[in-house]
Amino acid sequence: MRSPEPETKQPIRDLLRRLIKAPAALSILWPALLIVGGYVSWHRWGTEHVAKNFHAVNVEQIRISPPPDFVRSDIVQTVYRDTAMDGLSLMDRQATAKIASAFSMHPWVRGVISVRKLPGGDVDVRLDYRQPVAMVQVYRNIKGVRDRFFFPVDAYGILLPTSEFTRAETKGFVHIDVPGADSTNAEGMPFGDFRVEAAARLADVLMPIREQSGLETISVTGDSRRVQVPQLEITTRNETRHFWGSPPGMELPGEPTAEMKMQVLMAIDGTKPTDLRVARMPR
Question: What does DSSP say about strands 174-177 and 62-64: parallel, antiparallel, or unpaired?
Fold first, then answer.
């Protein structure tokens, strides 16, 4: 039985008939509709999500390895500000390399171990930090008055931020006393005096036995212009001086190694001056 309605008043039936009669056209139409729909959705919601989470590096989303207690400045804030990281996009293929380069320039950072982009736009940065081993004593004339300043250095003689330490805290470190030593280099750069770098190397080696030995000061003896290898002397808490000799790893032919000298230093009477280059273990 036919419907009493005219054919012209049945649009749904007409559409179904057309779709049934045109399966080939339908196979092209549906993918096209999906593409158009996806394109519209991306521009309406997708780009907003990407712009929010990945367009720029957000300082609150950067995580770094926990700094040591002696680092009191905000490393993330400093690096973010000084390197204009807010203009860097996480969509950049070189983003991790650029972030690593930015953090490697901070004076407290010895090296960048890894940089990872995490879901949601977070960035995880693993850092290897420098450790202060000594304070270099520098004497300067300020307005006609001779005053003493302290510059923290690591085991390689790299200058560390002086603002991290109070004057009272400098007493807790080994002091390096090198006549005429001074530096105008920036933090994170070498001190610039090979004698200071040699003394810093010794301070690092002696750090494990510093309390037992009573080590207070490392100084350079003799005329450095006549010898290529700086000759070092150590002074202990009771003001006893021991002649150490060459820096660790730079021993002259026949000179005992740093390990041998340390063993002797811990075994001898610490109240008597000793030349550790020729001293022997007490029997």
Answer: unpaired
